[in-house]
Amino acid sequence: MPAFSLLLLFFFLLHSPASPATAHCSTTTFAKTYKKCINLPTQGASLAWTYHPLNATLDLAFSGTFISPSGWVAWGLNPDSPSMTGTHALVAFSDPSSGGLLLLPFVLDSSVKLQSSPLLSRPFGLHLLSSSAVLRGARSVSDGAAVQIFATLKLSPNRTRLHHVWNRGLYVQGYSPAIHPTTPSDLASCATVDIVSTATEAGAPPPDALRTAHAVLNAASWGFLLPAGVAVARYLRQRTSLGPSWFYAHAAVQIAGILAGTAGFALGIVLGARSGGVEYGLHRGLGVAAVVGGGLQSAALFFRPKTTNKYRKYWKSYHHFVGYGSVVVGVVNVFQGFDVMGLRRSYWKLAYCLGLSTMAGVCLALEVNSWVVFCRKAATEEKMVVAEAPQQQQEVAVKAKV
Fold this sequence. Notes:
- By secondary structure, this protein is α+β, with helices and mostly antiparallel strands.
- It has 2 domains: about 20-200, Immunoglobulin-like; about 210-385, Four Helix Bundle (Hemerythrin (Met), subunit A) (Up-down Bundle).
- Helix content is about 45%, strand content about 20%.
- It has helices at about 1-15, 185, 210-235, 245-275, 280-300, 310-340, 345-400, and strands at about 35-40, 45-50, 55-65, 70-80, 85-95, 100-110, 130-135, 145-155, 160-170, 170-175, 175, 190-195, 200.
- The chain has a 6-stranded antiparallel β-sheet with strand order 6-5-4-9-12-13, with no helix packed on it. A 5-stranded antiparallel β-sheet has the order 1-2-3-8-7, with no helix packed on it. Strands 10-11 form a two-stranded antiparallel ribbon.
- Helix 1 (about 1-15) packs antiparallel against helix 7 (about 345-400) and helix 3 (about 210-235) runs parallel beside helix 7.
- The longest helix is centred in the last third of the chain and has 55 residues, at about 345-400.
- Mean pLDDT is about 80; it is low at about 1-20.
C-alpha cells in the first residue's frame, strides 16, 4: 500500500504544471521605449515592439536569460509556421576570442535536428535592417544573466501576424550553438503574435502523455519493483517459518516489474521513433542493457536445475550476478531519464530519491541484522564444537584401550 501511494504521488507530480512567478513585461529598455509588450509563454522571456505602419517597419526587443556561462540565447522569426524548422534566428553568446557578447544570424533548416554537422552562421534573410544584443545587469555571460536582442525589420505590407521562435542552450562549440534542452517547455518555445492587436497564439506543447507513461512505468519497475523483488529474495528466504512463501513473493514482484519495464521500454522505442533525430545514446544504451538482463533472468527460470544437481551452484551465481547487475543498471537509467526529461532538480526526482533511500535504509537494517544473526549462530556452533571435543577425545581413548 505505501508503494502504491508513492507511485500515485510520483504520477501526480509528473502531471503537476509548473507555475513559476513571472514578472510583467516592460516597454522600456536602456536604448528606447516601445509601445507594446507581452510575456512569452516559456522560459520567462518577453517581447517589446513598436510597429510603424506607414513604412511597415518593426522595432523590437526580445528579453531572455542564459542558463550557462558557455550557453546561448536565441530569438527568431519563422515565415511559415510557429516551429523551429525554417526559422531565421539571431543567436547571442560569448565570443570565444574576446569574451564579449556576440550576435550572429542563423537559418534553421531540417538538418538541424539531425545534428549531422555544426550549425554555421548564415544571413538572416528576412529584410533585417539592424540588430544588436546587450547584457542587462552583468558584464559577462553567466548562468541567469539577462540579455536583450534588438532588431529592426522591414515587413511585407499588411502582414502583422508573425511567428516568433526563441530558445536557449547550455554551450557553444566554437561559433556553433549546440542543441537546446528538449523538455516539453523548451520544445514549445514558439508563438504567433499579432503586432497590432497583441493577440498571441502560443505554440502547442508536444504531447507528453507517452513521456509521462514511459517515465512512470520505468520508475515503478526498474526503480522500485525489481529492487524490492531482490530484497524479498535476500532477506525473507532466511526466515524458515515462511517456507516457500518468500519464493512466490519474489517471483510475483519480479514478474510484475519485468512486465511494467518491458511496457516502458516499448514506449521508449515509440518516443525514439518520434524524436525527429534527437537521440539520447546513454539513456537508450542503459535501457537496452537493463531489458536484456531482465530477459536473460526470465529465460534462466526455464533452465533452473534441481537442488540436487551439481550445476545448481553455477546457476545461482549466474542468477545473482545478472539480477544485481540489471537492477543497478535500471536504477542508474531512471536517474538518466530524469536528466533527459529536464527534471534534474525537481520535486518528482526528490520524491523518487526519498522512496529509493527509504528502501535502501530498510535493506541496510535487514543486512546488518542478518549478519548479526549469522555471527551469533557461528559463535554458538563454535562453542558447541569446543564443548564436544573433550568428550570425543575420551571416547577415542576408551576405544584405543579396548
